[in-house]
């Protein structure tokens, strides 16, 4: 490890901080203190946190440092502070789900994913801001790259806090574009795993066939570090099957067995992509193809994909109507107009339409499988453009809907920049359940670009 | 790997079978078929199984083989058949707890530990015989070394099935001596981890401050393999704390930092140990000390330990009275006399006596910590002697009570033999929560003996 100043240990990657802690160069209390210094400095302008408790966090850090001195095995996230989206239950902090309707809500038990983080030695630093019920109506968070722009949503605070180096790792969720979009807008790495590979037990239920827990970090290795901790089977999540953990960290740095090939997918919503994003991605692809001939091909999704966004809408809105029925009944007036309208549209979706839309998932999957038979991964924009100006909306999730609906793993790689200097993400999508190879393939792409 | 005959793949260690499966030399269906051939041959005389379902097991094996061909990461127990004690809930098999009072009981959900085994790729072959409610009254199982002798209890079937090479790995539980004792009698390796390091969620509750899940195998490496899968934090078990997994398999083969030292502890119940066991252990210690001078010292436990067995009895029996109140109320006549008497004695234990006994755990722990400051591990007999003749009792747990009450990890190492040719185990005990070092230290001892 290079020398570093413990006072700014918040700037370290999670992997480097973990190494420094293991070797005794840094202790968790110093790291947590550095994170709070940064938070003190920036929280007023960024507002990434819904709940923070310095004493609680320092007590966890102290316990972690004591444990390390015992000489017992320490976990992969030992002593590292983590931010948790405020729709994920924590026994030590309130979980208010971005709405006054759940103000003061204090879970008695941790979500399974929080237990996994604690087992791995993580410090739960606090809860990060979510949009209202993890849907569209924004929270208080601002984009660290420009406070007049949205950070994206719904995992707004998780993306912004990592972007602002308040923490190195955080957890969010995605039911449409809620991990990849804020990652793109905030210029950080974001990972939405294959569907049902991180437990949703103890996480606000929006739409069970779509809800997916994801993670944020400032580099790919860190993303793998936290993903490996969280991607564990949990019998309490009825969507999960007992599949072996993907061991992403191990696979990530393996030699690829052959040159990798990418399908550049424009998708049926290509007309919504801004020219700046199109140009940036085109340049990037050209740069890759210059270095390695024929690495990236243009591939069009077959015609039926034109219906996917509408299928997704039916499923998500019908599920919102069902799962948020209680909030709608007792507090309709407290809900944002956008959510109220979604719920009301959802109430009108017939069971037949809902089931038809769900059934089409398999058809879409089959099409994608054909692409993945030929290509290692898909390249596509993570968002139509950079974070829009204004804090009254969180931008469009339109580039994320396909990959959420199909349950394929996706990584946001912060590779592009707008003329204004705002980040724009490139989305790399892999075959379902092949999360580890998606990481390896993404690393290979980054190696090419850095060549 | 050496060449082997798939028809007798049941004779392979779990570690070797796993390697053979990974490299494609063996498939899980062949392995499971070999196990069933062995079971067909021996089950009539050994009676290790409470529930077996060949079709169900073969279907799991088929799925495992298909999954392996997908090229995705496979788990550490991929394709390996496991036996589960019949007090541990399984959604795929009844869980009858060794009593007619729970005849036909079919859990709807797996215990957490079963979920962990499935995630690791294990085949749940069936449920193994437990004594009545995991206490003393024997089930139908016989000792594979001599069917006229008890296999020990309460994890009778789990120990016998591994001993008879019907399976390579199994799971049991210990509240007094129920893992280490049957391991000693059946001549297999048994491991009772530190208290609260394997989830008891979904396991019959006898005495929450004592109940400990343990494992059986035919060598130390296999024991580590399954222990690493199971030793995971589970927020559903209120006794557990989020401690990092011990990574036993990694530590097991590490060089020891210095010559290891053992305390030979005779314990306050030494007069109950048979002469044959005393002589055998004495010889073994002499052999070790001959090879490495001063490796083993005789250490006596301080006087207060004379009360520990009585403290354990109070806690366990009071808890049995409470936790088995329903069985006692509705089916007293169906309970064995021995269990009925324990429950009735337990009903008489006052809250004050119970709390006093529990409070003394800390005092005992403090004494043991002093020993572990000086010694790497404790050596002591696993049972007073070999398996007693007769099937109406399961032998004495008296050599296991201290280590259960103190929550220290213990391994049965099948090193001794009676004149009749029955196995007698040596118990190696480590410092609490230092399970990985206990394994490494035990391996070092075996290396010395094999020198």
List keywords for this structure.
homodimer, 451 residues, alpha/beta, Amidase signature (AS) enzymes, 40% helix
What does this structure look like?
The structure is a homodimer of 451-residue chains. With 451 residues, the first copy, chain A, is of the alpha/beta class. The first copy, chain A, has one domain: Amidase signature (AS) domain (Amidase signature (AS) enzymes, Alpha-Beta Complex). Chain A is built from 15 helices and eleven strands. Chain A has helices spanning 14-22, 28-46, 54-69, 112-119, 156-163, 180-186, 220-230, 248-252, 275-291, 308-323, 325-331, 337-348, 351-374, 401-405, 435-450, and strands spanning 49-52, 81-85, 123-128, 169-174, 189-192, 212-217, 262-265, 296-299, 377-381, 410-417, 423-429. In chain A, helix 2 packs antiparallel against helix 3, helix 10 packs across helix 12 (337-348) and helix 10 crosses helix 13 (351-374). The radius of gyration of chain A is 21 Å and the shape is globular. The two termini of chain A are 23 Å apart. The mean pLDDT of chain A is 97. Chains A and B meet through helix 4 of A and helix 4 of B.
Oligomer: homodimer
Using the coordinates above, name the CATH class of chain A: Alpha Beta
Largest interface: A-B, 31 and 31 residues
Provide the residue-averaged pLDDT of chain A.
Answer: 97
Low-confidence segments of chain A, ≥5 residues, pLDDT <50?
none
Strand-pairing-aware structural class of chain A: alpha/beta
Distance between the termini of chain A: 23 Å
Superfamily at the CATH H level of chain A?
A: Amidase signature (AS) domain
CATH-defined architecture of chain A: Alpha-Beta Complex
Largest sheet of chain A: 11 strands, mixed
The level of helicity of chain A is 25-40%
Net shape of chain A = globular
Per the CATH scheme, the topology name of chain A is Amidase signature (AS) enzymes
Strand order of the largest sheet of chain A: 1-3-2-4-6-5-10-11-9-7-8
Q: How many domains, in number, for the residues of chain A?
A: 1
